[in-house]
Amino acid sequence: RGGARAHSGGKMASTAAGKQRIPKVAKVKNKAPAEVQITAEQLLREAKERELELLPPPPQQKITDVEELNDYKLRKRKTFEDNIRKNRTVISNWIKYAQWEESLKEIQRARSIYERALDVDYRNITLWLKYAEMEMKNRQVNHARNIWDRAITTLPRVNQFWYKYTYMEEMLGNVAGSRQVFERWMEWQPEEQAWHSYINFELRYKEVDRARSIYERYILFRALVALVLVHPDVKNWIKYARFEEKHSYFAHARKVYERAVEFFGQEHMDEHLYVAFAKFEENQKEFERVRVIYKYALDRIPKQDAQNLFKNYTIFEKKFGDRRGIEDIIVSKRRFQYEEEVKANPHNYDAWFDYLRLVESDTDAETVREVYERAIANVPPIQEKRHWKRYIYLWINYALYEELEAKASKRTRQVYQACLELLPHKKFTFAKMWLLYAQFEIRQKNLPLARRALGTSIGKCPKNKLFKGYIELELQLREFDRCRKLYEKFLEFAPENCTSWIKFAELETILGDIDRARAIYELAIGQPRLDMPEVLWKSYIDFEIEQEEYEKTRSLYRRLLQRTQHVKVWISLAQFELSAGQEERLTRCRQVYEEANKAMRNCEEKEERVMLLESWRSFEGEFGTDATKERIDKLMPEKIKKRRKLQAEDGSDAGWEEYYDYIFPEDTANQPNLKLLAMAKLWKKQQQESEAAAMDPDKDIDESQT
């Protein structure tokens, strides 16, 4: 039993010891991030500063005998071979291996390595270049030629091989061999730079004829390519021509330019070709040929593609042309700009006006008509008058051009008729078009057509302006019966137009028919609705005054006062009575003022009553006695300043406003207020006097002594 206890006690002790050895997992209570954060960049920087990862360099080995050298070579070759065996496709391992053998002057071993590498990847350009450079570096010319031949045969589209090969042959002085390589290269139809390299090679050895033949072959080759690509390029033709010009073969250069123009034709015209051709002719002092070339190109190349052409032509004309030539090119340039504007927005009528103004200044009639037809074809898409207001002037200018500039009356009539047919008369019309057409027919001494046009306009779309124009025409022709009929039609159409009634009555007055004129006025003032009744009444009153019908004039005034109590009517009646020329005119005038003052006592607009009293006072000042003047002075109101509260639109207070009010002495309702105001003024005056006495006591003593 004791042993068991000891055993169990030892077991428990070992168990407790085992529990103590197991570390407990720390429980983090505060999981918030630390105030100072450490980044990976900081860790790397600290490692770099402490140089923890730097290894000491291997010790230098010095080879002292042949056995050590052979042993070193064996180990190095084994390393290279192992690297190649691991991954044969990594060409850098092969190149390093070959370059190491080359550094040991083991050329044959290096060749073997390069050949083995080419068996692995013969398409690797770097491998061929390193191989050939090794042979050239070690002056193995024939081996290098052999490698370049194999390279250009295997990979003929790699231009670098051809450049290196030709350069090597040229450096060796083998011009014929280099030319032969170039010829082999040209059979593959390389890119543009290869041809130019061949040409420059021949020029370095003064072989101009050979260079010309290469240019010929090249532009023919490029011509075939252009036909396939449908995008021919002119720069090679220009280079060929400049080559001929540089070597003073001017006839050949001109022929090249002419062949280029013929080759590209009118389908693929390029401004750069014509600019270069013109500059060549300019250098040869052939100014007329230059002008012809520019004009030929400008007439055929689209304007948006001829900006550079315009610029060079302008410079040429400024240098060698006259004023007319310079103006022509400027006009052409502006025409192009206007074409672009109207093409971008055909309904930009302002652009059309500018374009037509330019065309009319310096172009034949057919071209002007063509532009006008294009302009008027752009009819506004919406049938609203505001959209047609600018458009209609295109027709007007067109008709005026045909009549005044082209002297074509028949075409002018057609223009007017076409415009009038185009207008939607049921929705709106333009009276000016009808009137201009009628005036044109009158200038052509065709009065029936003019009357027919104006009659049609009144029937289709009657307007005040049309009636006035037609009546004015008949007045000039002294056709008064027609004028009467037109006025009757006009007043049936617009009975509220006071001006028409007045003009009709004035016509009858001129013709001496006073009764008809008076009857017209009576009809006019009897209309239920008028646009300017005050003008009509004034004209009627003036008419009766001219006829010296004073009683009828007074009657008219009384009838007018029954309709309105306006102060100007009373003043006008008073002035009429004053100017009537009768004995009791002053009495009548004063009676009118008295009556007006009584009638306007209850008028809300006090300013009107003040105006009446001012007029009365001026009358009494000129014609009245002292008693009448004193009486009118007593009737004059007193002008006082008042304040009233303002309110904003939302009902809130907007402050106070000062205004002037008039208080009439005969208004009994305001008498207490007047007394209060008088007492206030007296008190204010006394206050001012007492303040002045307090400010200057000496003055009071002096006054008391005196």
UniProtKB/TrEMBL annotation:
<keyword id="KW-0677">Repeat</keyword>
<dbReference type="GO" id="GO:0000974">
    <property type="term" value="C:Prp19 complex"/>
</dbReference>
<dbReference type="GO" id="GO:0071014">
    <property type="term" value="C:post-mRNA release spliceosomal complex"/>
</dbReference>
<protein>
    <recommendedName>
        <fullName>Crooked neck-like protein 1</fullName>
    </recommendedName>
</protein>
<dbReference type="InterPro" id="IPR045075">
    <property type="entry name" value="Syf1-like"/>
</dbReference>
<dbReference type="GO" id="GO:0071011">
    <property type="term" value="C:precatalytic spliceosome"/>
</dbReference>
<keyword id="KW-0508">mRNA splicing</keyword>
<feature type="domain" description="Pre-mRNA-splicing factor Syf1/CRNKL1-like C-terminal HAT-repeats">
    <location>
        <begin position="92"/>
        <end position="386"/>
    </location>
</feature>
<dbReference type="GO" id="GO:0071007">
    <property type="term" value="C:U2-type catalytic step 2 spliceosome"/>
</dbReference>
<comment type="similarity">
    <text>Belongs to the crooked-neck family.</text>
</comment>
<dbReference type="InterPro" id="IPR055430">
    <property type="entry name" value="HAT_Syf1_CNRKL1_C"/>
</dbReference>
<comment type="function">
    <text>Involved in pre-mRNA splicing process. As a component of the minor spliceosome, involved in the splicing of U12-type introns in pre-mRNAs.</text>
</comment>
<feature type="region of interest" description="Disordered">
    <location>
        <begin position="1"/>
        <end position="28"/>
    </location>
</feature>
<dbReference type="Pfam" id="PF23231">
    <property type="entry name" value="HAT_Syf1_CNRKL1_C"/>
</dbReference>
<keyword id="KW-0747">Spliceosome</keyword>
<keyword id="KW-0507">mRNA processing</keyword>
<feature type="region of interest" description="Disordered">
    <location>
        <begin position="687"/>
        <end position="706"/>
    </location>
</feature>
<dbReference type="GO" id="GO:0016607">
    <property type="term" value="C:nuclear speck"/>
</dbReference>
<keyword id="KW-0539">Nucleus</keyword>
<feature type="domain" description="Pre-mRNA-splicing factor Syf1/CRNKL1-like C-terminal HAT-repeats">
    <location>
        <begin position="405"/>
        <end position="606"/>
    </location>
</feature>
<keyword id="KW-0597">Phosphoprotein</keyword>
<dbReference type="InterPro" id="IPR003107">
    <property type="entry name" value="HAT"/>
</dbReference>
<dbReference type="GO" id="GO:0000245">
    <property type="term" value="P:spliceosomal complex assembly"/>
</dbReference>
<dbReference type="InterPro" id="IPR011990">
    <property type="entry name" value="TPR-like_helical_dom_sf"/>
</dbReference>
